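pinning this so it doesn't scroll away 📌
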Amino acid sequence: MIQNHTLKYKHLFFDLDHTLWDFERSSSESLTEVYHTFKIAELGAGPLDTFISTYLRINYQLWRELERNEIPHGHIREHRFRLVMEELGVQTPTNYAPMEETYIELLPTKSYLMEGALDVLDYVQAKGYTLHIVTNGFDVVQGKKMQSSGIYDYFTHLITNEKAQSRKPDRRIFEYALACADAGCDECLMIGDNWEADILGAKRFGLDTVYYNPEGSSFDEAPTHDIRHLRELLDIL
C-alpha cells in the first residue's frame, strides 16, 4: 500500500457500536431469540416489539449512567434484564442471569454493519490511514463483533475500557489510545455517534472529531465535522 503523505491525519479512531457495527439490528435479532427461548410472552411481558423497545431504551439509559460514572460497569449486565422485566410488569422471581448470558453469547455473533461502513473502511485503508477502535464495550464481546462482521483485520488496536482502565469521555482512554498509536493529537481524528462519550470526550482532550449524527441533533458546542451518513467521510478524508 502506498502511503499518501499529504493526509491531514495519520490515525483514525472509530467508535464501534452504532458507528460501524449495527447495534440496534444485532441487538433486536438477539433479543428476539431470547424472547422465544425463555418464553417471555408466557411470563406476561407483552409482545415482542414492546420487549425489544423497552430493552433498548433501558440499556441506553444504563450506558449513559455508566459514561457519567454513576454506576460501575458490571451493573449493566447484572441489572438490565431485571429492569426490563420489572417495567413490563413481570412479577415472577425469575433468575435473569441465563437471559443475560444467552444474549451476550448471541449478540457478538451478528455480522450487521451500518450502511456504508465497509466502503469507508476500504477507502481509508487504501489511502494509508492507520485505523483503531476506541470503545466502552467489553473486551471479548467487542472483539467477537469485529470478527463476526469481518472488520477485525482493518484495525491496528482495539482499545476498550478494560485495557485503558477508563472509559469515554474520560481523557485517560484517549491518552491510552494515543500511546498505543504512538501519535500526537494533531495526527488523530475521532469518529463516533455518541455526543458526550465520543465527541465531547475527544474534543476536550484535544482531538479533531467527526460526529456521526444521522438524526441531525444539535448541541451548544460543535464537532470538527458533522455528518449524516458514513459515506460523507469519503469527502472529509
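📌 and the second one:
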Amino acid sequence: MRDQLELLWEIQKIDLDLRQIQEEQDRFPREMKKLDEKQGIEKERLQKEKEKIESLEKERRQKETHLTAEIDRIKKSEGKMFEVKTNKEYQALLNEMEAIKTANGREEEEVLQILEEIDELRKVFSRKEKELTAAQEKIEAERKAIQERMTQNDAMLKNQMERRGALSKQLESRLYKLYNALKEKRQGIGVVTVRQETCQGCFVHIPPQMFIEVQKNTDLIRCPNCNRILYWEGDGKTK
C-alpha cells in the first residue's frame, strides 16, 4: 500500500500543478486583452491631441483666408476713393475702411494666439508621441513575455500530462476511481498530508491513534471530517 499511496500523492501534486498551469493559461488572454486596451487608450489620447492641432490649423487657415479677402476689400475701397464725388461718400468709405482695418487687427491677434497655441500643442504632442513610443515598447515587451510564458506552460502541461498518465497506469483501479471521485467533490484535492495531528485539507484534528497509523503509510486512511485520503509526507518523525 505504501507504493500506491506514494503514487497517489505524486498524482495529486501533478494535478495541483496542472490546475495552476491551466489557471495561468486561462489568465493570459485576459492579460493580452488588457495590454491591447492600454495600447488603444494611449493611441486614442495621442490622436485627440493631433485632432486638436489639426482643428486649430484649420481655424488659422480660415482666418488668414478671411484676412486676405479683407485686405483686398481695403485695396478696392482705396481705389474707389478717387471715384467718389461727395464728401459724404468719401467719409463713408473712410469709415468702412477703418472698420475693416480694426476687425483685421483683431483677427491678426487671434491668428497670432492660435499660432502660439499650435506651437505649444506641437511641443506637447511631440512629448506624448515619445511617451507613446516608450509605452508601446514596454507593452510589446510584456506581450512577448506572456507569449514566451504561454509556450513554456504548454510544454510543462504536456510533460505533466504524460507523467500523470504513466503514474496512473501503475495505480490500482479502485484507488484511482476513489481518488478521482474525491477530487471532484473536494475542489480538486483528494489526497492531503497530515501535520501535528491535523488534516491539511479541512484543518480538523484527527484522533492520535489515527495519526500514528497515517505516519506508517501502510493503509488507506481517510479523514473523518472531509473524507480525503490521508498521506504522511516525512521521515516518520512527528511534525
